[in-house]
Amino acid sequence: MNKFWIILGHTFMTRIKTKSFIISTVITLLLIVGLVNIQSIIETFSSKEDDEVAVIDYSNELYDPLSQSMNQSSEEVKLSEYDGSEEEAKQAVKDETYQALIVLDMNEQQLPEAIYYANNISEIGNQAAIQQHIQQLKVTYATTQADIDTETLANINAPVQFETVALDKSAKTSDELNQARGIVYIMLFLLYMAVITYGNMIATDVATEKSSRVMEILVSSASPVTHMFAKIIGTAFVGLTQISLFLIVGYTLITTKQDELTEGIFSTFGIGDTSVSVYIYAIVFFILGYLLYATLAAMLGSLVSRIEDVQQLIMPMIFLVMIAFFIAIFGLSVPESNLVKITSFIPFFAPMIMFLRVGMLDIPVWEIALSIGILVATITLLAIVGARVYKGGVLMYGKSNSLKDFKKALALSKKE
Amino acid sequence: MLKLTNVTKQFGNHTAVDHLSLEIPEKEMYGFLGGNGAGKTTTFRMILGLLDSTTGDISWNGQSIHYDKSHLIGYLPEERGLYPKLTVKEQIVYLGKLRGMKKAEIIKELNSWLDRFKVPEYLNKKVEELSKGNQQKIQFISAVIHQPKLLILDEPFSGLDPVNVEMLKEAVVDLKEYGTSIVFSSHRMEHVEELCEHLCILQKGKQVVQGSLQDIKRSYGKKNLIVHAAFPLEFLERLPGVVGFRKTTEGCRLEIENEDVSQLVFQELQNKGFIRKFELEEPSLNDIFIAKVGASYE
């Protein structure tokens, strides 16, 4: 056990001290600081002036109610009545004195109509807002003509009452679902990143020790199994350090910012009043998922003899994680589909997808237990096979890297 | 005492080590000789427990070797390897700790070893900055820093210049005096001849010769006879008992079946002219190796 901690400490310290680790951590931290302050950054660069739109009103009655309703809804568009001719106004738009020109008039039915002139009509935002306001104006005119009183009009316009109620008492309400979606999404993303980053780190580490041939001394002083697990757990600590650094910095920054931002971000991700059990499941599935993929990565790393080959060999593993991630993202909108249900019991997909189901649905405990059981069994199996492959693999040098090597490594480590 | 009983290792259909039985005495130096692929490294890996033997038994002082004894065992692998990015100090501290030492102890030992190898300035240098020969010294230190009771050296002198070979040889001899049992392999016969009391020669996994150096030479029987003379010596080749003849610049070198043949040769040489040198020589390990290993290659 003592040797386990020595190797673990060594793995941790050497990794923490590498340039690549420090640089990637600093860059990510800068990114977090940037994201938190994104609003201030955008504000610094964008001009505060409202866009001015010229209006020519031939009816002489439409301009006032329109500009009134525009002001009330605090649109970022400023209307101003233009005194000159239509041609002059168009020229002014071309010269960019005004952003656009609206020509208002009444048609034969005494209802408002408008023509919108702009240099380009791609800026959907302003155009749509003005159109909506003129539409309202038109409704007012039309209803006044038809002698409909304001009360009736209000009734017509009021939205219909539509409430969703889940009959199953333990099923999640839509509010809860939204919150759960947030935490599930965070966990999926973290696990995805962790497996790819730290899985890669483990495989590279093992391959580096092998290619520099220091491995033979290491395995002569500590058993390959100890060595493998010390590497896996040591790298987990590296990850823990990195992630907690990000979380602490991110959290402090967000809480020191204005309150709206805090509420905004936390409510978007549904952090706040999600039940404790979801967090516990998140941790359990995260750990299991990490162990599963880390063991696989260590095993694959022990099979290559050159660092350049690592990428090639862990590619299938990366694909597995990606497939799991995409099924999970798909499952966020349809958590009850059969695909999600089945894949939540398949070892390499289970950590992400079972957690998705736990978070989004109300599923019987035995299903969760079964999935965890399958995961634990797979990890154990992988650890046993992995340790065997590792023991043989670390002594094996050669060019190729394939399934053949896997068999060769197994043969090397066992009694014939 | 390290004892190997009927040890066999098979990789698939290939037999790397074939029914090897050895006894390696305490506090001695034991030499492993053999050509490339003879099974030396595989045997060492089995002794260390890195590989399991297919059949047979390996024991050290009556017990099998496990990781709980790793603080008593030192190993210098044939393929040298250290962490290129770590300094000598970080490196040796880590490897020393894995052999059960405390950090302070390791640094004290490391400094005295670096002084001994006349490279104290390497303490805080990265390994990748050192020359290959110097890396090998560091590697050697990593194998002996914990004062092992059993030291296994796989080709310890390969790739070193003569000065460094001497330095390392002295260190190995000192370790033996201190009480370490040393097993080492080499294909440089003179090293084994100089250092080892006991040895074995492996060929394709089988042991061809085994025992003490003296016994091996004696039982080999054949001797060398060196004759330097001022007249042609070719006629000696046809004498009964002469099995080998090689012309040299000053005369010839004969391989003879046994000591008695030298008397016959001496008589034949009389009255033929002036003889500058007539010397009976023990066979070198090199001769024995070539005779034993070379023969079965044919």
From TrEMBL, chain A:
Subcellular location: Cell membrane
UniProt domain ABC-2 type transporter transmembrane: residue ranges: 19-387
Superkingdom per UniProt: Bacteria
Sequence intervals crossing the membrane: 21-42, 183-207, 228-254, 278-301, 313-333, 339-356, 368-390
UniProt xrefs under InterPro entries: ABC-2_transporter_component, ABC2_TM
UniProt xrefs under Pfam families: ABC2_membrane_3
Membrane topology: Multi-pass membrane protein
Main location group: membrane
Swiss-Prot/TrEMBL keywords: Cell membrane, Membrane, Transmembrane, Transmembrane helix
Protein name: ABC-2 type transporter transmembrane domain-containing protein
Gene name, Swiss-Prot/TrEMBL: yhaP
TrEMBL record, chain B:
Coiled-coil residues: none
Entry keywords, A to Z: ATP-binding, Nucleotide-binding, Transport
InterPro entries attached to this UniProt entry: AAA+_ATPase, ABC_transporter-like_ATP-bd, ABC_transporter-like_CS, ABC_transporter_ATP-binding, DrrA1/2-like_C, P-loop_NTPase
Molecular function via GO: ATP binding
SUPFAM superfamilies xref list: P-loop containing nucleoside triphosphate hydrolases
Domain ABC transporter: 2-229
Entry's family note: Belongs to the ABC transporter superfamily.
PANTHER family given in the database record: ABC TRANSPORTER ATP-BINDING PROTEIN, ABC TRANSPORTER ATP-BINDING PROTEIN NATA
Name of the protein in its database record: ABC transporter ATP-binding protein YhaQ
Biological source species: Virgibacillus kapii
Gene encoding the protein: yhaQ
